[in-house]
Amino acid sequence: MLAMLTWGVRAPAQTYNLTTEPGTAFETVTTDVVWELTETDYPVDDDRQLVPIGFPFLFGGVIYTQVRVMSNAVLHFGANQGFHKDYTNTALPIRDHTSGPGPEESADRVIAGYWDDLEPSRGGSVRYDTLGTAPNRRFVASWQNVPHYNFRGSYSIQIVLYEDGTIRFRYGAGNATGASATIGVEVDDDDYTQFSHNTTGAVGPGTDLVFSPYTFAGGCPAVFRDEFSTAAYSNQDGNAAWATPLARGRRRRRPDQRSRPRSPVAALRSTTPRTRAASRAGRARRTSPVTPTPP
Fold it and tell me: Does the global pTM surpass 0.90?
C-alpha cells in the first residue's frame, strides 16, 4: 500500500488532517441540482440548492443533515452567508470577501473541492445522491464536464461526505488542475486546512484528497472548539439545533458521578474557550498564494 502524504496549510485548532491517496473512480449520481435562482445576479452561474445529506454529518463539531451544493464546486453548511455569489476565489480563510454581485459575508463552514468560477449554465451537469447503507453511507456531489466562465475546456470534481465524518475530493480528466482554484476545508477563520490556492498541477485524476477528523487514542472525535454538546438535527436552513448547549459554568454532578474518571472530551470542555475576537487579533491576515509542498 502506498504511503500517504500529509501537507497543506493548517491553522491553530485544526479539526481535519489532510492526506493524499491514489485516485478512485467517480461514482454515478443521478439527482440533478435544481438551482434556486434567487439572491444572485447570475442565476445558475453563481447559484446554490439546499439539499438533504441523507444522514447526520458531523462537521467542525456540529451535526448537519442538509448542505448547500453550489455552482462553483463548493459545499456550504449552516446559515446562508451569500457565499454562492463569490465567484472570485481567495486563499483560506475566507474573510472580507465581496467580489461577487450584491452583499456577501465572510464565509465559514465551507468544503471547497474546487472553488473557481465554473459556469454550469454553459454545459455539463451538477448532481448529487446519498449512496450505501448505514453505518457506511456517503453523500456524493458531482460537477462533471462543467465549463469555466473564462477558460476553455471542462472541469470534473466530486466531493464525498462519509458517515464517519471523513471528506474526499476526486478529480477527473480535464482542466481541473488547480490553476485558478482554492482547494481545502474551512470550519471558521481559526480552523481551516488549505491544500492549494491558484497552483497549476496541484490536483488531477491520479490523486484523491482525504480530510479526516482528528481523533484521540480512544476513538473519540477530537473537536478542538467549544461545540461540545448534544446536537439535534439541522433545521430547514441547514443550521444545527442544539439540544443541550454547553454550560459555561461549573456543573453539579450526581453522587454516582463524582468518582468517575474524566474523558479527553470532558477535559477539553473545562478549558476556557478563546473568543473569536482574541483569536483573530493573534494571527496576521494571509495574503499570499500557497503552493503545496511535502513537509
Answer: no
